[in-house]
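Handout, section B. The chain below has 180 residues.
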Amino acid sequence: MTRKLTIELPDELEQHLLAEAQRLNTSLENVVVLSLVRSRSLEPGLTPSALSESDSEEPIAESLRLQKEHEITEIVERIRAAKTAGNLTAEIPATPLAFHLIEVMKNSGLIADFQRYEDIETNPCLQIHLNPSDRAPVSQPPAPEDFPEAIARILQNLQSEDPTVRILALTALGEHYSEP
C-alpha cells in the first residue's frame, strides 16, 4: 500500500531543495525521499516506498542510485578540494562504498595511502593521504588485463577526458562493490 504525503516547506528550504534537485537532475520529491533515507529518520519497517505516490519501486531505486552517485561525487570533490588547497590529507565518512573506492584509488596510485579511524563523535572516517602534486603516483597502476573485464572497462573509462564518462564509471564501480 502506498500513501500520499504532503509536506509544507518554508520557502528558503524549498528553494534549497529545488536547487539540489536541479543539480542532481531529479525531482523535488526524490530529493526529499533521499534526504529522509539519509537522515535515517524513517521508522524501522517504514520504507521510502511508503512516501512515494506510485506503486513502482523506480523512485526508490532511483533514490538509491542518486545516493550512490552523490556519495561518489562527494568523495571525489573532497579529494579535489584538499589537493587544490595544498593539503596532503582529506577526510571522508567511512562507508563500504567509500572504502572500496579509496582502496581502488590507492591500488591505482591515485592516492598515497588511507587509514580508518573514529572521530570525536565515534563516527567511522577514512583519512586519505594524497600524493604531493610534484611527485609521481606512489605505485604504477596494474595493467588492465590484471582485472576482470568489467573492472578493466570501468578503469579505462575513469581515464576518459569526458567528465560524464568518468562519473558513469565511478557509479559503475560503486554498483560493482555494493553488490552482495
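Note. The mean pLDDT is 75. Compare this with the example in section A.
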